[in-house]
Amino acid sequence: MTPSCAMTSALLLDPDATAARLPYPALVAETAALLQDTSVQVPERRVQPLPGGGSLFVMPALDSRVAITKLITFTPANAGTGRPAIQGDVVVFDVATGERRLILDGPTVTARRTAAVSALAAQTLAPNRSGPLLIVGAGVQGRAHLEAFAQTLGVARVVIASRSDASAQALAQHARALGLKARVTQDADAALADCPLAVTCTPASGVVLRAAPRADGFLCAVGAFTPRMVELGPELCRHVAAQGTIVVDTGDALHEAGDLLQAGLDVAALPTLGGWLRQPSPARAGPVLFKSCGWAGWDLAAARTALRGL
Hints:
5-stranded antiparallel sheet, Delta(1)-pyrroline-2-carboxylate reductase family protein, ODC_Mu_crystall, disordered N terminus, Rossmann fold, globular, 7-stranded parallel sheet, 24% strand, alpha/beta, NAD(P)-bd_dom_sf, 2 domains, ornithine cyclodeaminase, domain 1, 310 residues
């Protein structure tokens, strides 16, 4: 092996190695720290449509020490084929030297940073963190959210809903292997009445949750990231807007939060998670909806976490 090959091998982390460098408690803490860091810059991401219905995402971000670019493809047609819908890498550079420090597995970063942001939002906004946690969608994001909420909020009970019973049962078994109590439901709307915490993490090809959350409920919707995608019924969104609080991950939600846009809500007027952390608003009674659309800043937080100890 030549020295250049050895260097490349050392830099390139596979999914397991990437996950090992992104423990959820540390990733949640780093995400909160990033939202307080005034040196962070996140240019607008480029989404390039691909033939066949896929998309190429180019997502740069930087702070005073680290610069990253996330390059991933999103291919909905891969559903059911055994090929992942999200593929790609996060390339991490040292700002001062220009040196490439790491290449992280893109899908692993996406799954873990998304779940970490949801967990941070729940820590910050949830009126009742006791659980059970309802997870709608039993794929990669469902598993990531299960692990993140268990490790950072102490959730001990989960209820899982999925259009695939096999996937739901597999995730429930994984939860039990982690020492959690888990059950599968065929009716997510009915289960919502018993779950003060809920996350929807589906492909967002249609509404999966219509019932209004509990008065002390926290609902996190992560699946939809274009105006056409949707997981939550419009009446649900309008109910929370009238009776509780809606917070979005970033200002980019103005153009991407399909659930809220299709409900006819003024997304530009909604508070962001970063704004809430920097200047907490007075507590308001009623349910909380956190809408997550994705942001390269979350990938930068993951890169900063992964660099620790190197």
